[in-house]
């Protein structure tokens, strides 16, 4: 279980995040190890909404890393519990502000929306206003019905919702990034 952070620990977290951002900026500039010349990808997946799909998030992030830098790689970490990165209110503000900044920096957004999550819903609402190319992935086999506020936001172009089964995930991502190459 993750504990609440002290002031110095929080400062260390910010320092680590800044380092990561700088590293990401430099790999984006060089395009090293990236498919679509250093694309920045924001991946959304449930954290406090429940971690049932974390192994699938890992698979998605691994595939996304062949196309660019995944700003939110931590979402797919099996070490991250449903308590999130930090339980204190100060930590929450850091997480929120950092993630909104990453959303703004991102070129494309991919969200796994099967496990309902307030945070993912919020991120997608912000992203619609930012007019970023967005792919939402939903598994009907879960027995859930996706929120109308996500399914109904599909405009067939900028914001797309795709039903899929787990075994197709890599192919669907390939298809999506191939269409980006053509646009
Ligand atoms: O610790 C966190 N770190 C973090 O980056 N997030 C962001 C990224 C995820 O796409 C999304 C998950 O939201 P939620 O925790 O409400 O399920 O919010 C959310 C939390 C915890 O809410």
Q: Any chance you could write out the topology, listing elements then pairs?
A:
Elements: H1 7-30, E1 39-44, H2 54-64, E2 68-70, H3 89-105, E3 108-112, H4 118-130, E4 133-138, H5 148-151, E5 159-163, H6 169-182
Parallel strand pairs: 1-2, 1-3, 3-4, 4-5
Binding site for substrate: 42-48, 57, 123, 147-149
Region (Disordered): 1-33
GO molecular function: 5-hydroxymethyl-dUMP N-hydrolase activity; identical protein binding
Q: In brief, what are we looking at here?
A:
The chain is of the alpha/beta class and about 180 residues long. Helices cover about 45% and strands about 15% of the residues. It is globular, with a radius of gyration of 16 Å.
Description:
The protein has 183 residues and is of the alpha/beta class. The chain has one domain: Rossmann fold. 45% of the residues lie in helices and 14% in strands. The chain has 6 helices and 5 strands. A 5-stranded parallel sheet has the order 2-1-3-4-5, with helices on both faces. Helix 5 links the parallel strand 4 (133-138) and strand 5 (159-163). The radius of gyration is 16 Å and the shape is globular. 5-hydroxymethyluridine-2'-deoxy-5'-monophosphate is lined by residues 44-49, 72, 75, 84-85, 95, 99, 117-120, 123.
């Amino acid at each position: 279980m993750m504990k609440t952070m002290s002031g110095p620990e929080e400062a260390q977290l910010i320092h680590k995040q800044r380092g990561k951002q700088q590293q990401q900026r430099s790999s984006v500039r060089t395009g090293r190890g990236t498919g679509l010349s250093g694309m920045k990808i924001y991946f959304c997946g449930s954290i406090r909404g429940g971690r049932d799909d974390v192994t699938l998030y890992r698979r998605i992030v691994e595939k996304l890393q062949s196309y660019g830098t995944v700003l939110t790689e931590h979402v797919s970490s099996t070490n991250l519990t449903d308590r999130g990165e930090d339980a204190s209110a100060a930590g929450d503000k850091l997480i929120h502000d950092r993630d909104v900044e990453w959303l703004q920096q991102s070129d494309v957004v991919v969200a796994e929306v099967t496990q309902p999550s307030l945070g993912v819903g919020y991120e997608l609402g912000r992203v619609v206003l930012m007019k970023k190319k967005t792919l939402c992935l939903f598994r009907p086999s879960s027995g859930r019905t996706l929120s109308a506020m996500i399914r109904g936001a599909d405009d067939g172009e900028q914001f797309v919702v795709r039903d899929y089964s787990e075994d197709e995930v890599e192919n669907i991502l390939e298809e999506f990034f191939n269409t980006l190459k053509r646009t």
